[in-house]
Design brief:
27% helix; Rossmann fold; single chain; 275 residues; three-stranded antiparallel β-sheet; seven-stranded mixed β-sheet; alpha/beta
């Protein structure tokens, strides 16, 4: 990897948005390419909100400093932590500041180049979350703030891999788009407040090129699906957090906004334990 300036390459053409099936291989290939192409724009647009060494669970701005979903900060010292879908490794950098030993993993090489640009002592690994390149029982904790799980066709494959690399008693905490949001348009204004589709329609959202090849894929799971995925993968769910929109946060992030955040949840955070 090399340190490179932020240069956004233009898209060849606008992709077509549709709902259709997309398997594990297609989803992985599409999202690796999408994040490589869009990492620069993402970091420019959201880098200030995310910070360089801040642990934020979602657009609401819930901070791990306050939430302590991984445990009290003083208990993180000396812990081996895997961050999945780390992006520019902001969360891992915060963990390192608490004395933990984080490893930042992401499917996107370009996102990890931004981690190098920011700097810090965090090891970086470019790999698919469905095939973690670590030995059994390598970590005490695992975390993922909107990383990997919204984009994979088989979340149980990822969860079982995470369980494999966690030590007994290890904790996994992950955040995803709140499932209820799939029934509403992805708009921050009043147009995003009316139901436009079935909450129970699990057909993936796909953006595809002129040849019909997926260039971005996002998968919907209902809240019940997520709970069953956790249990079927060998975890015990100990908490489910639905952050409320705080008064201080006046920013919009895609379909997340103060207007919508004060009425319906935007993020779901699952706190799981490997027994």
């Amino acid at each position: 990897m090399t340190r490179e300036p932020i240069i956004q390459e233009p898209e060849a053409s606008e992709p077509e948005a549709t709902r259709r099936a997309a398997d594990v291989t297609e989803s992985s290939r599409a999202n690796r390419g999408w994040w490589d192409r869009n990492a620069d724009e993402y970091q420019v647009e959201h880098g200030t909100f995310l910070g360089d060494d801040r642990f934020v669970w979602g657009p609401e701005g819930l901070d791990e400093v306050e939430a302590e979903l991984l445990g009290p900060p003083e208990d993180l010292k000396g812990k081996d932590v895997l961050e999945i879908g780390a992006g520019a490794a902001q969360c891992s950098r915060w963990l390192a500041g608490q004395g933990a030993r984080p490893v930042a993993l992401d499917i996107s090489h370009r996102q990890l180049q931004h981690a190098l640009r920011i700097g810090g002592p965090v090891p970086l690994v470019c790999a698919d979350a469905g095939a973690l390149p670590f030995a059994d029982g390598s970590f005490d904790l695992a975390c993922s703030a909107y990383g990997a799980l919204p984009f994979v066709a088989d979340p149980r494959l990822v969860l079982r891999e995470v369980r494999r690399v966690l030590r007994p008693g290890g904790r996994l905490v992950f955040s995803v788009t709140h499932p209820i949001r799939w029934a509403f348009p992805d708009e921050p204004g009043p147009e995003g407040l009316s139901v436009s589709g079935s909450y129970f329609d699990r057909t993936p959202y796909v953006e595809q090129d002129e040849a019909g090849r997926a260039v971005y894929v996002e998968h919907h799971r209902t809240l019940g699906d997520r709970v069953r995925d956790v249990a079927a993968s060998g975890f015990r769910l100990v908490d489910l957090v639905e952050p409320e929109w705080p008064a201080w946060n006046t920013s919009e992030w895609g379909g997340w906004s103060p207007l919508r955040g004060n009425l319906i949840p935007g993020t779901a955070i699952f706190v799981c334990v490997r027994d």
